[in-house]
Amino acid sequence: MKLLFITLLLSIFSIVSTRAQDFEYGRITGNDVDLKNTSLDSNANAMVIREFGTASVQFDNATGKTFIVFDYHARIKLFNKQGFDHGNIVIPLNIYRDGEDELKELKATTINFVNGQLIKTELDKKKVFTEKKNKYVSLTKFTMPNLMEGSIIEYSYKVNLPSIFNFKTWEFQSDIPKLHSEYIAYIPAIYNYNTSLRGAQKLTKQDAKINKDCLSIAGTKIDCSKMTYIMTNVPALIEEDYMTAPTNFRSAIYYELSDYVMLNGGRKSITKTWKDVDYELTSDKSFGAQMKRKDVFKDIMPEILGKETDDLNKAKAIYTYIGKNIKMNGFIGFYSENNIKTALEKHSGNTGDINLALIAALSAANLDAEAVILSTRANGVVNNLYPVISDFNYVVAKVNIGDNSYLLDATQPLLPFGLLPLHCINGNGRVINLKKPSYWYDLKASQKESTKYILDAELTTEGKLKGKLTTYSLGYSALKKRQRIVAANSADEYVEKLDEQMPGISILKHSIENIDSLDYPLIEKYEIEMKVFDNLNADQSYFNPFFIDRISKNPFNLNERTYPVDMGAASEERITMMIKLPANISVVDKPKDMSMGLSDNGGKYLASTGMQDNSFIFNQMLQFNKPIYSSDDYLSLKEFYSRIIQSQKTDIVFKKTK
Fold it and tell me: Where would one find the signal peptide in this protein (predicted)?
């Protein structure tokens, strides 16, 4: 979003900075030295004793530029060697089109209490280095010196931020607990920011005061709001399986510029309506202009479509063509990096190049195609109350054929038509149409993750299990396996690696069907041999039938989870075994049949065993019917998995009858 006019407005402003009261650098107390992790979290390897930050807008008379000055100061206790990772400090700095964040006044000290004395070791500035993560972000990195168990590390720095649109975010919560986190924001009265506090933790203290004469506009003194936010005894945010971006749930305060007062007393709105955003996007040379580039495909469209006349088959042909002819260059974004013509010629582009090209090609075939901008799971949720374009980082295509709509992402050629990659399944996307108003669209997985195993085998008198294992995979399950096959360079190498990962099972022969037929299930057929018993002649022998995708670890281990369990898609796994037994072997004990379900038809687990003629029959089904479960369902899910794990520890007992 372009804010050059704000810089021009502020060129006549000057900010008088008033520094808040920070805690004294390097002044360690006995309480700091004696601090134990039991004071807040007995499992913590490190803990923030205190952190303090301030942010204010300033104007540089020499350069004529406005910027935000952010000061940060932290003191952290490392309880053990596992906490040493928190002595590796990384400061991310953003790179913009017309500037970048500037790091200044960095200092860092390690303090150890040795033989009754405090020993301070200063950071050698020569050991601070910068790594360019990508063209948008650089990382300043350093490791605190002389780390020991019980070390206290302290560091502070200043950063000049050239963008004032998003006032500096402050994160009260991190992956280690904090005893005291304090942030002071100086907001000039001419600015109005939308402010939001995310996360489950509540502020301990919030205070607003007037900071007199902090701003001078053409000789007129303007006040600032001094906003103080304090949070104490903050628990760590523990990342666990099935969560989206931690920023969605980490307790933090966010700002976005809403409007500002002009010199004549009028008010200029920055927060736009979707009507404004629609116009900007459809007019943008890197977005809307690329959607309109039907001319790029005019000459090659007959080649792409061949003899296809049905609209759905046309769309599939175009989807396949784009996926094969433009490979992703590793960068994501919803704007075209160069333009779609260049991407097609070079066979390379970012996600915007690829999917905007897909939209233009679909339109060139007279199909109803739209763009859907979204935020990926790792990027966080979007604000549904008002447009925040910086929330979005990805674009996919939406093609409407008859009564059906299909969401398409051509950046991953192994995705079947109509299935988005899991990282795109994240709340709502905004549909951008060249001629109609934009609207929200629910991003859902069009297929569930489905796997079915069928084992038809025989237990030999030598104690070996021999037979045929057939696996049917659909949806995301098939996608993951196809990706592994491609990564292994061939099906044979994929099976070879699979064989190595299953030390108890030997794969004798194999065949894999529909590797390239993405609309059909991936079918794997294996002739396997498995050593079950060392001595089948013993009076009793034991065999655990839960050897296919056995659940050995509970993915949910917290006592409480304050954020939802987001699986992205519903899933189902079925296992069927038919094992023919030798004539002199019978089953004398087996796992109890089990049937349990989650509330509100959220899912179920079934397991049953039985005998038919001289064959042992085993069936199992694990089903999750919801893509997302609320935090209220967490303990039920934890118990659900715990009972499955206990059930799967039970063996079948065979007995020799003759």
Answer: 1-20
